[in-house]
Amino acid sequence: GSWVSMPKVELHAHLNGSARSSTLLELARGLGEKGVIVFSDVEHVILKGMFCPFCLLDLFNDRSLTEVFKLFDLIHVLTTDHATVTRITKEVVEDFAAENVVYLELRTTPKRNDSKCMTKHSYMEAVIEGLRRVDAVDVNFTSTNNGVGRTVKSSLMSDTHTYNGLPRKKIYIRLLLSIDRRETLEAAMETVKLALELKDVGVVGIDLSGHPKVGDWTTFLPALKFARDQGLRVTLHCGEVPNQEEIHAMLDFLPERIGHACCLEEDAWRKLKMSKIPVCAIANTSSNTIVWQTSITLSAAIIGGLLESCNSYVGVEICLTSNIRTNTISSVDVHHFADLYRDKHPLILCTDDMGVFSTTLSKEYAIAAATFGKKEIFELARNAVEFSFAEEDVVQELRDFFNMKRDEYG
Ligand code: 5GP
Q1: Quick check: is 240 catalytic?
Q2: Which domains does the chain have, with CATH numbers?
Q3: What is the pTM of this model?
Q4: What span, in angstroms and rounded, lies between the C-alpha atoms of 141 and 78?
Q5: Which of 93, 195, 215, 316 gives the lowest tally of CB atoms within 10 Å of its CB?
Q6: How many C-beta atoms lie closer than 10 Å to residue 9's C-beta?
Q7: Nearest Cα residue to atom 13 of ligand 1
Q8: Residue 72 beta carbon below 6 angstroms from any ligand 1 atom
């Protein structure tokens, strides 16, 4: 129970993969009645992803990577209209807030769907409308107070709002726009430009995801570089399959964070552990461009000396249940989490897709604590703050908040 009450930070959650299975079933039933799909065909596929209290053996829930991506295609059939995108966004935020996630970095792939008159832009408007509709908790999803996004009036530090006699929960949300590896460079560029347009409503960065065996990541490199040059933060799905060439190239790009990092051979593993990125440069978006450019033109020694004190390693977003369910890692005991943890390499426990993998962030913390020991688990949650892509004042507030909670949980 303590893992539910402990404040947590979620940095790797895909919107559609986090949708409630109960909602997906309801949507499937509705589309079944309209004759768009055959409900009995999809029911078992969705149910496979639901938590089953009678399944002592979790084998039933195992999905290969390919099966998982087939499931995403089905989910997208069910969810991709504006009203549903709004609904699942609202529900996902409420679900994370209910288990005391105080900072959620939610990622989603903006989708164009001509049959629904949906553009990438209108898809994102529907997501943002979902954030606005959250009413059970206080939501902050925008740094500006321009009336576009509702902001938390009180900070995390004070319990001034009440809900049913209890202090109202508060959650910070920032968004990452995902590029799907199936997309073209042109479509990826559209996503990056959209992210720039939506900076005022909490979009802080870009993610590269989608089936790891599909497409070539170099296709997206110009879009990712453009994103970074424009001050967006970047995280990449890296090493879900053993493609060492791609893994090395991704690490050479120096993303601030990578997701999974499952299939790194020894030299890539070494590279990951040695790679440092200038955190000072990134802490403040306006200086971001300048320092990145400077580090190219000035000698590494000069810049290195200037920044050494505040450099940071590439943070690894760890999704334990996801890796096991997709058969990427055979069991928690052999998961690379242990190696990173031992080496004090920054890692962040995340859910990936809580609907699809029937997990929660609290469960991920419980698994880590059970397998690797309880001590330091609170520090793990606290340290995740340092890898958030939010503005510095939000990061500072989260730091203060976790420091305040240290006596209770640490
Ligand atoms: P969406 O972006 O539609 O909100 O969330 C679902 C999408 O996230 C999937 O279609 C896929 O592109 C991406 N995704 C979710 N989980 C994973 C994962 O474990 N690995 C990769 N590479 N992509 C994922």
Answers
A1: yes
A2: 2-275+314-409 (3.20.20.140)
A3: 0.90
A4: 26
A5: 215
A6: 25
A7: 210
A8: yes
